[in-house]
Amino acid sequence: MKGQETRGFQSEVKQLLHLMIHSLYSNKEIFLRELISNASDAADKLRFRALSQPDLYEGDGELRVRVSFDKDNRTLTIADNGIGMNREEVIDHLGTIAKSGTKAFLESMGSDQAKDSQLIGQFGVGFYSAFIVADKVTVRTRAAGDKPENGVFWESAGEGEYTVADITKADRGTEITLHLREGEDDFLNDWRVRSIISKYSDHIALPVEIEKREEKDGETVVSWEKINKAQALWTRSKSEVNDDEYKEFISISLTTTATR
After folding, report:
1. I need a labelling partner for 187 at 20 to 30 A (CA). Which of 30, 59, 119, 135 fits?
2. Within 13 Å, how many C-alpha atoms sit on residue 199's CB side?
């Protein structure tokens, strides 16, 4: 790949990865909540910038998050068509996260894993939760408004370094592929993934779709099914919101106000 280079994580990120993998394992499903929440943030940023730069939509204003998995290759992919990132942003956001946020998160972590899992989003380190279940994470992204040849590839095994390179990516947005660790086949189960999305991401005002594959006339037909309500809780009438939804929304919203 063009422009390929290997860079080291800042020391805080290494420490963060180690603690996150070993301290949050019992509540590992939260990685999907964090990655979908990040994708929703990317869509919000695109909407905001497109108010003054409508061309950023590139003719596609239907924003969404798509989740798919490949059982043969044991991968789970979360893709959005939000704002995307250029090379400099990839390095800044995925290799050198804000020291203040990282330090605060590390200092806040304790023996209460349920509490720790809520702190992830609050301190803006949600992306790294992917390594709780993945031994390698691959990112393909392109910033809205950039040329296809300005796409960026990022990959890491979550140890001491990461690789970044230039690629061609036709569509804007970010695609994150998790290469699952041995024993994490649970996240290749359609029902399991659907239940996690419904549990954590129902309040997100953006369609979260899961890939469906069906055999028809000897061919594989791919379609996308919306899993969440895709309607912000505050836009629904009070009678449509039950107590559990309200409590869940309050709990989750407290952890997703920080910029990721």
Report:
1. 119
2. 12
